[in-house]
TrEMBL record:
Residues 113-214, 236-341 form the PH domain. The lineage of its organism: Eukaryota, Metazoa, Chordata, Craniata, Vertebrata. Residues 20-117 form the Arf-GAP domain. This is ArfGAP with dual PH domains 1. Pfam families: ArfGap, PH. One of its GO terms (molecular function) is phosphatidylinositol bisphosphate binding. It is found in: Cytoplasm. CDD domains: PH1_ADAP, PH2_ADAP. It comes from Neogobius melanostomus.
Length: 372
């Protein structure tokens, strides 16, 4: 994130410089100010630069400093982009320059010890309160467990790493260190929401999960390269937000719901922080009868306030949604189209519908390890 930033095919040049010898963007400059004992920043256009400072920057620069401070970054370690949340960017910068975690070969990493045991604040499924819970990540078992009491003998839940996804959700959770962990439970998607007051600790948990996932993948797919396996680790959702939906008969009233598009699964929730999805839609390929278009059928009874419609056609039925704005409508259509246009792996055929709920299929699918 400290090189020229690429946005929609355009390159935005960094506007700040650090005494570490790197050129950075405005956002990163704010983080560098928080480690003022390590990094001093100046504006490239507004600050005065002494001759020796200019010479130092000319002799170093982003690529040279990258070879120094990122010399030994583990392949599973998540390198944030300008689109990621602040806690990921801040801990990445602190890990490089303040703690110098990646500068020396052979440095032990806290997130690859094979076991991680600690307390996280977890949101209660029913009451919405955050309470301290013990979490244990075990590489040898390929599991993440949590306990309602620190000294409890039996875990409240056991999550298999091959069904886990983890993604930071500071805005949705209202906490800068908020992490959403998604996994499969009884063929349904289950969400748990956790945070830690320490940004370092929550990012360490995140990368520890990725380290265990990579270990699992290397065992499951011994012939695969790191370049093939790393994209199968944790991922951000393609899109989230509110839409209105109607039922399978398409004569019911439209109701406002929170939607999450995760790879080929569209899930909807009554509340963004619900533990379970009320329903899920599987998106196949356009060659198998899936399509998306703007608007609603002329016969649709639309009682909602939102008028920007979307029609999704699947081999089983059509799904009707409405968005609040045309911009939201077009963003959803673009994401749906990209999913439907993408080639499906033969392994996706392992996905199967287990039950219907409100006219929408509940889907059983490996969360992170569909090796395509």
């Amino acid at each position: 994130i400290e090189s020229p930033i690429h946005t929609n095919g355009l390159t935005v040049a960094p506007t700040w410089g650090s005494c570490l010898g790197v050129f950075i963007c405005l956002d990163c400059s704010g983080i560098h100010r928080n480690i003022s004992d390590v990094s001093k920043v100046k504006s490239l256009s507004l600050s005065h630069w002494d001759e020796h400072e200019i010479q130092f920057m000319a002799e170093n620069g982003n690529e040279k400093m990258k070879s120094k401070y990122e010399a030994n970054v583990p392949v599973y370690y998540y390198k944030p982009t300008h689109k990621d949340c602040r806690v990921l960017k801040e801990q990445w910068i602190r890990a490089k320059y303040e703690r110098k975690e990646f500068s020396q070969p052979g440095n032990p990493f806290a997130y690859e010890e094979g076991v991680k045991d600690g307390l996280l604040m977890k949101r209660g499924r029913d009451n919405g309160q955050f309470l301290s819970r013990r979490f244990v990540l075990l590489e040898r078992e390929g599991t993440l467990k949590y306990f309602t009491k620190y000294d409890a003998k039996e875990p409240k839940a056991v999550l298999k790493v091959d069904t886990i996804n983890a993604t930071f959700q500071p805005e949705k959770m209202g906490n800068p260190n908020g992490l959403q962990i998604t996994y499969l439970k009884d063929y349904s998607t289950r969400n748990i929401f956790v945070y830690h007051d320490s940004g370092k600790e929550i990012v360490d948990w995140y990368n520890a999960i990725r380290a265990v996932q990579l270990h699992y993948l290397k065992v499951a797919f011994p012939g695969a390269t790191d370049a093939e396996l790393v994209p199968k680790l944790t991922r951000n959702f393609l899109k989230e937000g509110y839409m209105e939906k109607t039922g399978p008969k398409q004569t019911e009233g439209f109701k406002k719901r929170w939607f999450t598009l995760d790879q080929r699964r569209l899930m909807y929730f009554k509340d963004p922080l619900d533990a379970f999805a009320k329903g899920e839609v599987f998106f196949g390929n356009k060659e198998h009868g899936y399509s998306v278009s703007a608007g609603l059928p002329s016969s649709t009874y639309c009682n909602g306030a939102w008028t920007y419609g979307i029609t999704i056609v699947t081999p089983d039925r059509s799904f009707l949604f409405t968005c609040e704005t045309e911009e939201e409508q077009q963003e959803w259509i673009q994401q749906f189209s990209e999913v439907i246009d993408a080639t499906m792996s033969p392994r996706i055929t392992r996905v199967r519908a287990n039950s219907r709920h409100d006219g929408i299929f509940k889907i059983s699918v490996s969360m992170g390890f569909c090796f395509v």
